[in-house]
């Protein structure tokens, strides 16, 4: 318990119980307990308290006798605490005091309340009426921790010493072999150190934790060698563990360097071996979009495999950078060489992958442009192969515009194809720079021939389409001209019809006198000239349509109807015009004769000697009046009148009035003739 007798000897308490006590177990326990104190402490002897209050006398006797064999030299006094009801005298006839010389120590029987006669109360626990504080379970737990710590510490010290000593001597091969065999201790040094520090803290706390201003003695105090032994072990452990950590650091650094070197060589060997071989076998660019896409997919698979190794490269580069930052001079040269070698190979391989990807992308764009251009040429050719049958000139113009737009689009497409092709050829010419010494002339020649062949084929197809477009353009322009001629010819017929209609409806006046009638006649001739020009223009247009139809090898849709219409209208106009001329000329003759007679003086009666003049004027007037009532008859039997009935009535009335004037004049001239014979 940590209590001491008056001679400063330790007190050993043996509590007995009602159950059967195993002497063997008790002997082992006593041996263990007596091994704990130091030799100096043992030399002061022990006072043993055998608590027999709950046990049998024969058990107590056996225990006391056993002490003779276990600790005879160290035991100075044995106090047997008897129960309140003392054992039967028959049983306790054995007198220990008579056996003192034989036992080697003094044995006394004492009650618990009288134990203080031999031992101070402050050195006794509460079980014996003392004041010494003692918790057996706490002592036991601490002792187990101490024993475990001591055992693990000694074992760990031996292992660490073996590891550390093996790393300090011998050849490098022996060093590595010894480290490999004992590199990992059987227990965790950190755990053992933590356990030791916690144990030491507990011991120091119990040692200096006073009660009522006094000192609380502990069975784990300095006299039991607990604290000094723990401190010594901790110091030794820290020293060996520090050396062990350095050994581990050096070994870890060496191992890490070897692993990095191994991984670097794995990356380099794969990139320069299988990786480069994959690129060597991929040289084509494909002959279509689908073929280029298939090559791109294959290249993506190659890139995916490379990406795994590039990821290893990034990780290795970071590890090497970390080691370089650590600043170990002995490894700097080797690390930098590894880093440079790894970077050179990876960057070269990455550049080749990028070059191949760009080449395939350029090939895909080239084939895409070629396909688009081919489709445009097919569309243009299909448009040219369809016969043109538009309804009018506007639709022909629209078709011609669409044709020109398609041709322009083809020109732009061919220009884009040439640019893409030249760019692709430039890239192929640089392919030999990463061919790893492989002769790619044959493969490149195939690619170059394919590209140039595609461009030449597209050029020939475009040229054929251009020739066909020229022919189609000429034909369509002729068709536009044909439609224009037909439209203009129809317009000429319309104009001629309008002139005929105007002649019939508005050209009705015959003039009030000879002068006016002559003016109307002159205007009519000019009017006829205009109609003649219109008719001639229509005839020329229709003749042009005939020529164009022969050139186009087609039948005009409207010229066959337009020509008869033109001739029919012109015939009607001619008949109507001739009738108009005849009426105007008759009117001129009528007005001239009438005006001549009306203007002659009465003093010249000899001028009117001939009766025929008056009769002629009257006949002309009547003839003119008759013509005003007669319609114009056309070859088809149809009839048309000049102007309205009122217009004709007005003209006829004017003629009649002039005829009346001539008649009056005639009468005036006859009266003097009648008076002369009478005179």
Automatic annotation (TrEMBL):
Pfam family, one: CRAL_TRIO_2
Keyword annotations from UniProtKB, A to Z: Repeat
Sample GO molecular function, one term: phosphatidylinositol-4-phosphate binding
Record-annotated CRAL-TRIO domain positions: 1-136
Gene3D superfamilies with a match to the protein in the record: 1.20.58.60
Domain of life: Eukaryota
PROSITE patterns assigned to the protein according to its UniProt record, in alphabetical order: CRAL_TRIO (PS50191)
Xref: InterPro entries: CRAL-TRIO_dom (IPR001251), Spectrin_SESTD1 (IPR056804)
Keyword Amino-acid biosynthesis: no
Keyword Repeat annotated: yes
Family to which the UniProt record says this protein belongs: Belongs to the SOLO family.
Name of this chain's protein: SESD1 protein
Species of the source: Tricholaema leucomelas (pied barbet)
Gene: Sestd1
């Amino acid at each position: 318990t940590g209590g001491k007798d008056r001679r400063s000897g330790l007190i050993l308490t043996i509590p007995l119980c009602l159950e059967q006590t195993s002497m063997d177990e008790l002997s082992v326990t006593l041996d263990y307990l007596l091994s704990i104190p130091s030799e100096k402490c043992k030399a002061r002897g022990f006072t043993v308290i055998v608590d027999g209050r709950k046990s049998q006398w024969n058990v107590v006797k056996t225990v006391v006798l056993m002490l003779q064999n276990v600790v005879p030299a160290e035991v100075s006094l044995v106090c047997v605490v008897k129960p309140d009801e003392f054992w039967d005298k028959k049983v306790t006839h054995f007198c220990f005091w008579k056996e003192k010389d034989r036992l080697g120590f003094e044995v006394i029987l004492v009650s618990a309340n009288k134990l203080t006669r031999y031992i101070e109360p402050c050195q006794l626990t509460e079980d014996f009426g003392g004041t010494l504080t003692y918790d057996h379970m706490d002592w036991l737990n601490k002792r187990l921790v101490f024993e475990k710590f001591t055992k693990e510490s000694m074992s760990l010290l031996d292992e660490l010493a073996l590891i550390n000593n093996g790393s300090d001597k011998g050849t490098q091969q022996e060093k590595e072999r010894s480290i490999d065999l004992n590199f990992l201790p059987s227990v965790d040094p950190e755990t053992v150190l933590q356990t030791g520090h916690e144990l030491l803290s507990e011991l120091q706390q119990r040692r200096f934790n006073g009660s009522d201003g006094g000192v609380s003695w502990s069975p784990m105090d300095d006299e039991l060698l607990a604290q000094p032994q723990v401190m010594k072990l901790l110091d030794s452990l820290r020293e060996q563990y520090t050396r062990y950590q350095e050994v581990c650091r050096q070994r870890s650094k060496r191992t890490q360097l070897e692993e990095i070197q191994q991984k670097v060589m794995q990356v380099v060997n794969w990139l320069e071996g299988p990786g480069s071989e994959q690129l060597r076998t991929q040289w084509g660019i494909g002959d279509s979009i689908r073929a280029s896409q298939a090559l791109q997919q294959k290249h993506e698979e190659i890139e995916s495999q490379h990406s795994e190794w590039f990821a290893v490269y990034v990780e290795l580069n970071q590890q090497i950078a970390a080691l370089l930052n650590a600043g170990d001079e002995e490894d700097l040269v080797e690390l930098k060489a590894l880093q440079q070698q790894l970077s050179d190979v990876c960057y070269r391989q990455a550049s080749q992958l990028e070059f191949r990807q760009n080449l395939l992308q350029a090939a895909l764009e080239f084939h895409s442009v070629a396909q688009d251009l081919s489709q445009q040429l097919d569309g243009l050719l299909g448009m040219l192969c369809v016969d043109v049958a538009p309804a009018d000139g506007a639709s022909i113009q629209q078709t011609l515009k669409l044709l020109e737009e398609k041709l322009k689009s083809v020109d732009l497409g061919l220009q884009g194809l040439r640019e893409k092709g030249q760019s692709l050829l430039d890239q192929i010419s640089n392919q030999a720079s990463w061919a790893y010494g492989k002769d790619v002339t044959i493969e490149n020649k195939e690619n170059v021939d394919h590209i140039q062949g595609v461009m030449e084929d597209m050029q020939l197809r475009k040229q054929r389409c251009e020739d066909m477009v020229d022919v189609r353009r000429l034909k369509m322009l002729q068709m536009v001209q044909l439609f224009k001629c037909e439209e203009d010819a129809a317009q000429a017929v319309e104009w001629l019809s309008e002139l005929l209609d105007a002649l019939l409806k508005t050209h009705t006046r015959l003039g009030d006198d000879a002068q006016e009638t002559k003016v109307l006649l002159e205007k009519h001739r000019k009017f006829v000239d205009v109609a003649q020009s219109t008719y001639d223009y229509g005839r020329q247009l229709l003749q042009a349509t005939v020529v164009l139809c022969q050139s186009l090898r087609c039948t005009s849709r409207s010229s066959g109807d337009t020509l008869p219409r033109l001739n029919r209208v012109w015939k009607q106009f001619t008949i109507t015009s001739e009738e108009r001329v005849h009426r105007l000329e008759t009117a001129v003759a009528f007005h001239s004769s009438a005006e001549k007679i009306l203007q002659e003086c009465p003093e010249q009666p000899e001028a009117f000697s001939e009766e025929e003049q008056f009769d002629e004027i009257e006949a002309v007037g009547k003839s003119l009046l008759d013509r005003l009532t007669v319609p114009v008859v056309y070859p088809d039997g149809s009839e048309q009148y000049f102007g309205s009935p009122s217009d004709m009535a007005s003209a006829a009335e004017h003629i009649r009035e002039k005829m009346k004037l001539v008649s009056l004049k005639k009468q005036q001239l006859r009266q003097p003739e009648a008076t002369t014979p009478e005179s």
